[in-house]
TrEMBL record:
InterPro entries hit by this protein: PPIase_dom_sf, PPIase_PpiC, PPIase_PpiC_CS, PrsA_foldase, Trigger_fact/SurA_dom_sf
Gene Ontology MF term list: peptidyl-prolyl cis-trans isomerase activity
Transmembrane segments: none
PANTHER family: PEPTIDYL-PROLYL CIS-TRANS ISOMERASE HP_0175-RELATED (PTHR47245:SF2), PEPTIDYLPROLYL ISOMERASE (PTHR47245)
Alphabetical list of Pfam families matching this protein: Rotamase_3
Protein name per its UniProtKB record: Parvulin-like PPIase
PpiC domain sequence ranges: 247-337
Disordered: annotated span: 381-427
Source organism per UniProt: Hyphococcus flavus
Length: 427
């Protein structure tokens, strides 16, 4: 009997089933081994083929990379050679100078940043440290800009927080809160600029007025430093030897106001016991003497205008002269003391001569500037209507019998109008 697989099935084979099954399984195993072997051989051949293709690709890429590097090297060499040949030219030298300056500035900036970098204190907290400036110490920083001691001192002097000759140190600047006040003022000013307040007409007028005051003071200080020198004082003392024989000197103080009504009001306050110095500091428009309580100092008859001199020398020490009017306003004058100037040594009159030279320099500078700029004043013609108008010293009843002093030449009077020049410069 023939089986489906083509074998003959007989009685003999029927009696040996185990052997037949073994032979069938052996044939199947051989077939499986042959299939696995073929798969392994095929995989190995495929990997060998891929490895060969990859190696060829790597070699190709390597050759291309070497060619690119060679081209880039030749190009860089040509560029460097051209750069070296270009440097000695005019544009090359300019480029080198600019590059050097840039590198120097960058280096200094890096050094400054490193010096101002936060440092660790004993508690492990980062603190900023300013650059060291021995001549002008740094006291604060506002958005990267350092604030020096000189700026604090200038602002304090402008605001009247420092007396003349007072030296400001970093310790006292912080102790008196001058640094904080300066920083706050700068911050507020910057905020005003950011808000556009400088375009406001009222603000612009105030800014211009403050600017003019600062510039006028600086100009006058420069003139005084040039004219009022120790040599000039000694020359005037030597040339005018009669300065020590000008008769009596008077020390007085005064308050200057604009109207007769104000003068009468101040006289009433003084009669009621008000302090003269406090009223002068508060009400006087003569800003040169107001901060010192209206103190004018020692002066002779010829050092002031005739009206001022008559009022001062016709009043006894400790009394007040009747209010009088000049071109600068109404004066309330109080005589403090009186002395003789005969045989006064140079050291005793040095201060008076310096004051006279300052006033004369101020008046001369103002007169020259007015003439140069063709200044014309349009004063309103208004008469004062007061119930009790103070007497005018120009009234013939008030004039004493000293006719010689009233008949001085106009040029001499111009040289002696020191008080008027001081008030005009201040105003």
């Amino acid at each position: 009997m023939e089986t489906p697989d083509g074998q003959e099935f007989t009685q003999e084979t029927q009696t040996k089933p185990v052997a037949t099954a073994a032979r069938a399984m052996g044939g199947s195993a051989m077939m499986l081994l042959r299939a696995v072997g073929k798969i392994i051989i095929t995989t190995w051949r495929l990997a060998a083929a891929l490895d060969s293709a990859l190696w060829r690709a790597l070699k190709l890429l390597g050759r291309r990379a070497l060619r690119g590097l060679d081209y880039a090297g030749r190009l860089a060499g040509a560029a460097f050679r051209g750069f070296v040949l270009w440097l000695p030219t005019r544009t090359g030298r300019a480029y080198s100078a600019m590059s050097g300056a840039f590198l120097v500035v960058a280096g200094l900036w890096i050094i400054d940043v490193l010096r101002a970098a936060p440092s660790m204190d004993g508690m492990g907290t980062a603190t900023l440290r300013p650059p060291v400036d021995v001549e002008d110490p740094i006291l604060a920083r506002i958005e990267g800009r350092y604030v020096h001691l000189s700026e604090i001192e200038a602002a304090a002097r402008a605001g009247g927080f420092l007396k003349s000759g007072e030296v400001l140190t970093p310790f006292t600047a912080f102790e008196r809160n001058l640094v904080e006040s300066y920083v706050e003022q700068r911050l507020l000013a910057r905020a005003a600029l950011d808000d556009g307040l400088q375009r406001n007409p009222n603000v612009a007028r105030k800014v211009n007025a403050a600017r003019d005051r600062v510039l006028a003071s600086a100009y006058m200080d420069a003139q005084l430093q040039t004219e009022v020198t120790p040599q000039a004082v000694e020359r005037l003392y030597t040339r005018q030897s009669d300065v020590t024989r000008l008769g009596d000197e008077v020390r007085a103080r005064h308050i200057v106001v604009e109207t007769g009504e104000e003068a009468a009001e101040i006289i009433t306050l003084l009669e009621e016991g008000a302090d003269f110095g406090a009223l002068a500091r508060e009400r006087s428009i003569d800003r040169a003497t107001a901060p010192v309580g209206g103190e004018v100092g020692w002066f002779t008859r010829s050092m002031m205008t005739p009206i001022f001199s008559r009022a001062a020398f016709n009043t006894e020490p400790g009394l007040r002269a009747p209010a009088f009017q000049t071109e600068f306003g109404w004066h309330i004058l109080e005589v403090l003391d009186r002395r003789s100037t005969e045989s006064v040594p140079f050291d005793d009159v040095r201060t008076s001569i310096e004051d006279f030279l300052r006033m004369h320099t101020i008046e001369t500078a103002l007169r020259e500037l007015e003439e140069r700029n063709q200044v014309v004043y349009f004063r309103p013609e208004v008469e004062f209507q007061t119930t009790s108008e103070p007497p005018d010293l120009r009234d013939p009843e008030f004039v004493d019998g000293d006719e010689d002093n009233e008949e001085k030449s106009s040029s001499q009077q111009d040289d002696q109008r020191s008080d008027s020049g001081q008030q005009e410069a201040t105003r």
